[in-house]
Amino acid sequence: MTIHRGGWRIILTVWVAGALLIWLILRFISCIFVSFPIVALLLFFMGFVLFFFRVPRRTRPEGDNLVTAVADGEIVVLDKVFEPEFLKRECMQVSIYMDFFNVHVNFWPVTGKVTYYKYHPGKYFLAFLPKASELNEHTSVCMENGFGEVFFKQLAGTFCRRIECYAVVGNDGVRGDQCGIIKFGSRIDMYLPLDADIKVSLGEEVRACETVIAELAGDKSLKTSSNRR
Questions:
Q1: Residues 6+ apart with CB under 8 A from 16
Q2: Residues 6 or more apart in contact with residue 89 via CB below 8 angstroms
Q3: Domain ranges in the chain?
Q4: Which of 20, 119, 151, 201 could serve as 142's disulfide partner, Cβ 3.0–4.6 Å?
Q5: Which pLDDT does position 125 carry in this prediction?
């Protein structure tokens, strides 16, 4: 396990501030029934910040047509919907909700080229609510390979105030490599071709990189940009 590259500054800041507060508490509060619980809470928070930015080592399943989970969490939406932003067609939506204790680093779901990226400022409704998909702050990314197009969103939640995404239009992404991070409770929406073979079920717990969300059908699933012209 390693630590996310963008987490060290926050970890250092929290640990220095925490160490200073602990010293002040132990120095000036003589009652152990007051000082020890406060110190314990500070130590827990310092440990949690380190734990939050962890990047676990994962085993990537083989198969060029596989779509794996972008994030750890629970499947909270599994439904046929119309995707109006970029694909402009009906898709299968698979949404993953992350709580505070899930790994919040995100990973490319397929190997392919980034064909679309956009950042959307917005609200901070609870991430599991349906309206969060359109109204909350989020990023939108589309990837394309020889098997089809995979569109996904990183959504902010009530307690999340920062999304990082490494997508650059024209660049390639490799399935299982890091593509960003959402800090604190949040959600991922994935939009897949209707003929994709979905491998997960509602309420299932999934693991980024390792859980196969779907198998793409092949070239016939790659709808051209004619729908978007």
A1: none
A2: 82, 83, 223, 227
A3: 2-55, 66-228
A4: 151
A5: 61
Rounded CA separation 225/216 (Å): 18
Q: Which residues of the chain have pLDDT under 70?
A: 122-135, 157-161, 184-185, 219-229
CA distance 122 to 111: 29
Task: Give the helix/strand (H/E) hosting 105.
Answer: strand 105-107
Question: Closest Cα to residue 92, out of 23, 149, 26, 30?
Answer: 149
Helix, strand, coil in percent for the chain, rounding step 5: 25, 35, 40
186 is catalytic: yes
CATH code of the domain made up of 66-228: 2.70.70
Give me the catalytic one of 186, 201, 225, 226. Answer: 186
